[in-house]
């Protein structure tokens, strides 16, 4: 899925999503943001038997995993100041650190893709897309309270490719 809107230049962010996976090994790439000259400007990925990783400008930090077939709420926060980051799963902090791409602003005018890593901005075959992509669903909320202030993952803002389907998400209802 390709998000129609690009990110502005950012010096800090929080990204949150509901995600479910029972893929093995690794769940693949919930989202990737690539800019010209940097395919890994901002990526959330879990591949092989590795833990979940966040990449900013090709710098990597890792923590835990979520491949238990249940819905989980994931949030990652980051600030360019000292590269401080925190990861949360279901409201509990599961990772944190510093020196993750410190003083590197997230560049604007890139391409945001849900469900696949990008080799270059906007395209290319992904090297680390796991076989479990079909088993994973990324949900986005339709309620105003769940919408982001930079990009809301609303249905109208997303183009679907490769046989994926769109659907609304209700956090209180278990989906198959």
UniProtKB/TrEMBL annotation:
GO terms for molecular function: metal ion binding. SUPFAM superfamilies: Concanavalin A-like lectins/glucanases (SSF49899). Keywords: Calcium, Disulfide bond, Glycoprotein, Metal-binding. Disulfide bonds join 16-75. Binds 2 calcium ions per subunit. It is found in: Secreted. Its cofactor is Ca(2+). InterPro entries: ConA-like_dom_sf, Neuronal_Pentraxin_Related, Pentaxin_CS, PTX_dom. The keyword Ligase does not apply. GO terms for biological process: axonogenesis involved in innervation. It comes from the Eukaryota. One of its GO terms (cellular component) is extracellular region. Belongs to the pentraxin family. This is Pentraxin family member. The lineage of its organism: Eukaryota, Metazoa, Chordata, Craniata, Vertebrata.
């Amino acid at each position: 899925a390709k998000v129609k809107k690009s990110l502005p230049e950012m010096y800090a962010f929080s990204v949150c999503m509901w995600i479910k996976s029972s893929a093995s090994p690794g769940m693949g790439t919930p989202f990737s943001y690539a800019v010209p000259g940097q395919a890994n400007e901002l990526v959330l990925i879990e591949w092989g038997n590795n833990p979940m990783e966040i990449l900013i400008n090709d710098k990597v930090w890792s923590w835990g995993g979520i491949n238990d077939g249940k819905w989980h709420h994931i949030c990652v926060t980051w600030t360019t100041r000292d590269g401080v980051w925190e990861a949360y799963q279901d409201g509990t902090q599961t990772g944190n650190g510093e020196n993750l791409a410190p003083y590197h602003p997230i560049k604007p005018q890139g391409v945001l893709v849900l469900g696949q890593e990008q080799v270059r901005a906007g395209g290319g075959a992904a090297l680390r897309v796991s076989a479990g992509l079909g088993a994973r669903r990324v949900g986005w909320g339709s309620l105003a309270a769940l919408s982001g202030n930079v990009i809301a993952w609303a249905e109208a803002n997303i183009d679907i490719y490769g046989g994926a389907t769109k659907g609304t998400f209700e956090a209180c209802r278990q989906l198959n």
